Amino acid sequence: MARSAGPVAALVVLALIAIPVGAVIRTAGGIAGLGAADWAALRFTVWQALVSAALSVGLAIPVARALARRRFRGRSALITLLGAPFVLPVIVAVMGLLAIFGRAGLVNTVLGGLGLPPVSIYGAHGVILAHVFFNLPLAVRMLLHGWLAIPAERFRVAAQLGQPVGRLLEWPMLRRAVPGAFAVIFLVCTTSFAVALILGGGPQATTLELAIYQAVRFEFDLRGAASLALVQLGVCAVALGALLLVDVPDALGAGLDRTVARWDGAVSRDAAMLAAAALFLALPMGAILLSGVPGLAQMPGSVLLAALRSLAVALLSTGLCMALALAIVTHGRGWSRAVAVVPLSVTALVLGTGLFIVVFPFVRPASVALPVTALMNALFALPFAVRILAAARDDAEAQFGRLADGLALRGWARMRVLILPRIRRPLGFAAGLAAALSMGDLGVITLFASGGQETLPLAMFRLMGAYQTEAASGAALLLVTLSLGLFWLFDRGGRIGAET
Amino acid sequence: MALKLESISIALGGFDLAADLSVETGRFVALLGPSGSGKTTALNAIAGFVPLSAGTLRWAGARIDDLPPAERPVAMLFQDNNLFPHLDVARNLALALTTRARASAEETRRVEDALARVGLGGMGRRMPGTLSGGQQSRAALARVLLQDKPVVLLDEPFAALGPGQRRDMMALCRDVLGGAGRTVLFVSHDPEDAAQADAICVVTEGQVSRPRPVAEVLDDPSGPLRAYLGK
Known about the structure:
The structure holds two protein chains of two kinds.
Chain A: H1 5-28, H2 36-69, H3 75-87, H4 90-101, H5 106-113, H6 124-148, H7 152-161, H8 165-191, H9 194-199, H10 208-217, H11 222-244, H12 267-295, H13 301-331, H14 334-339, H15 348-359, H16 369-406, H17 411-439, H18 444-448, H19 456-465, H20 469-495
Helix pairs in contact in A: 1-11, 1-13, 1-15, 2-6, 2-8, 2-12, 3-6, 4-12, 6-8, 8-11, 10-11, 11-15, 12-20, 13-16, 13-17, 13-19, 16-17, 17-20, 19-20
Chain B: E1 2-12, E2 15-24, E3 28-32, H1 39-47, E4 54-59, E5 62-63, E6 74-77, H2 89-94, H3 105-117, H4 133-147, E7 151-154, H5 163-176, E8 183-188, H6 191-194, E9 199-204, E10 207-208, E11 212-213, H7 214-219, H8 223-229
Parallel strand pairs in B: 2-10, 3-8, 3-9, 6-7, 7-8
Antiparallel strand pairs in B: 1-2, 1-4, 4-5, 9-10, 9-11
């Protein structure tokens, strides 16, 4: 691989962001034209993100503490369950939530049995519920890292001195970790689209992302969409700026399977917290499985074609993402790695709007729906891939770099002998993550696709919109199987024969 | 008064350790043995961090193995992380005296006295990260003095120090702990450190021996210890 590969890859990434963002800025011509509904969308975006982040982190604290100090049968399974929302397609999870909290769901069945009025999952509280479903596990994993980073000896010293562990050890750790976890989840929730698309809408629960989608798809108001995209860019910039001011705990790393011996806390309270969290996560996932099996037979043939398209898009975007990530990680300088984080500062709908504006004068947007989706999916998986691979590559260089220098291993030889064998495992994991994220994506495709270019998540969304619930359940099961299957295949592939 | 380990056994993840011994008050006793032999496990059991699977632990005749760590007459120093990095040295020491966020004037005076006794007078406002390894060890030792427990367990807290500093710290321990009549058990895998003790308990093959005279153990080691010492 040429030495220029890293900078070239970084420039490609910059161009893929700068061109559509430039188109958005040029088309918008400022934010003066925004109406009351648009400002309401901004207020709702920020408000729901603040509430979702506060609830996710607040609920994660007792769950992470219980996980940190209790060893029990099924602990590893629960930690795996906490990782599931990372690779679970958003639309599938929302379908699962509908099965539990929807009009005919488990909760309303129980309420009806007790003679109580039903609750509706649609609206602001539904958006927040779904965001907590996705981000509670993320927050638990980030905080759990904080807890497990406290050396065991310090708990012993505290126990020996009869000092309260909460004030002495946990509060200082939480003071560092909570702002980072909160900022990450706030950013995730301000950029979330699929949740608002399905559960939000109307004057009370429209996010900026949803407003952009409506402006493009329903009103074909590209100028209005660009203005909204500009505001969304501002929100992302503020959220990302906040993120840069705090320590961001790790959520992807391994090593969460150990516990630290403790001499405090009530077992029953910890057990209740863990059981509640496990039920909250497992029930919707279980519902997908239960309702999906009979739904498989109800799926129209077009769903299978959509699945094939999704697979092709996922494989293409994974290949692109890994090529860019490897080039940046192995041959990039500091600025190249910094560029890899830039996709976090934009959203799928912002870039999608920009690309729509760019391609519209030349080609029919629907004709480039799939390649554009693959490109965007690669771009949005890049920050995670680079973060995962950079740590492994730097570790390999730190341990064996001098040995490789001594043996005059350079270029491809160094890659083949040192880097690739050492990063094989994280490479498999990163590729699995990129493939699963792409497989479940319901973002840019909604702006570009018309009939005949649907991916599986879009086909499923349209089945839900047409009230073909059984067929949609079958599609959800197919989608989750393919997403997890791709993740497993890549992750497993990375582990086979990997250097330890 | 004595610390008695009456036919105790500890089962820990497939590793078994047994001990039946008594250490008289005021003694300075080394636990000598190779890595992984169970020296730290023995100290952890005495401090209450590892449960006994059988036997009884007594101090001055009273049973202590059913007490939580804070209520045992035991203070322990670990290999690492003896000080909380986010608290200054004085606050770290004050934890031995109070659970309140602020120490009283009397407690502050006692903290300053303890720091002076270990040669860290005037360093209470320093953060642990700004101290050298030797100074951190001294600060942790000062807190043990403030805990004022009759039994002190040292799990190689000076292992990261150079030979000279380690000798100084052992001498300081003898001075400030032994002088106050405390019973000290310290872990070592270095015969030179163990030679400074009053007696040695040999820990090999899951068994802690009774305290024996230093010369007897080091000059004429037997069984696995002979191989370990290379004699």
